[in-house]
Amino acid sequence: MWVAAHGVMIVTPVHWFQSSSPLKLLTDRLVCADGGNPDPTRTQGKNAKLAKKIELEGWDYPRHLEGRLFSVVVHGDVEGAENVRRALADWLASMHMSSAGSKAEIDRYVGYFMPYATSHAELDGDLAVQQEVANAAKTLIEAVSAARSGRLVQAGEGLSDPRQK
User: Are 73 and 9 in contact (CB under 8 A)?
Assistant: First the structure.
């Protein structure tokens, strides 16, 4: 689904200074999106010996998500939101995806050090955060629209990467 999309938006809470478990599982499964095998028949499914042999013979490291745009929104009720936002943005950029813009990447604290039992009510009541999330989505939509029409110019496009991986 990510390969077919022009833009991806991740909205996640912070859990103990980290991204949530479901999001971590997703990132682990997307390892092949950055240089992974586009043809599973070539490796007979998950034949690790064959995959290693093919890679060592000269794998071309296809960047399946290159050129897609992203937005990242991270919220938490204690420390960690900024680090998780930065880590996710860095991960996406490492796969040659591009941020949709500064308003597309936000980290916010909601109900900072308030009781955990009321944290969902704090999030529901924080209209400013809700508007910032809406703005992040709108920024992504605007960037995707500009990219699709050829109006979005990313500095450094066309430069060759001296290291494939």
Answer: yes
What distances in angstroms separate CA 90 from CA 32, 127, 128, 136, one per listed residue?
17, 28, 26, 17
What is the spatial distance between Cα 129 and Cα 106, in angstroms, rounded to a whole number? 10
Residue pair 98/70 in contact by the 8 Å Cβ criterion: yes
d(CA 144, CA 7): 6
Residue 164 burial by CB count (10 A; 0-12/13-18/19+): exposed, middle or buried? Answer: exposed
Written as one string, the DSSP assignment of 62-83 is -BTTTT-EEEEEEEESSTTHHH
Dihedral of CA atoms 137, 82, 75, 100 in degrees, nearest 10, equals: 10
66 to 12, 54, 84, 97: CA distances (angstroms): 23, 22, 22, 5
Strands 18-19 and 7-15, by their bridges, are antiparallel
* Structure-token pair, residue 106: 């936000």
Query: pTM of the entire structure?
Result: 0.85
Q: Which helix (H) or strand (E) holds 26?
A: helix 21-29
94-144 residue pLDDT tens: 989 999 999 999 999 888 878 878 888 888 899 999 999 999 999 999 999
Query: Tokens for 129?
Result: 């955060």
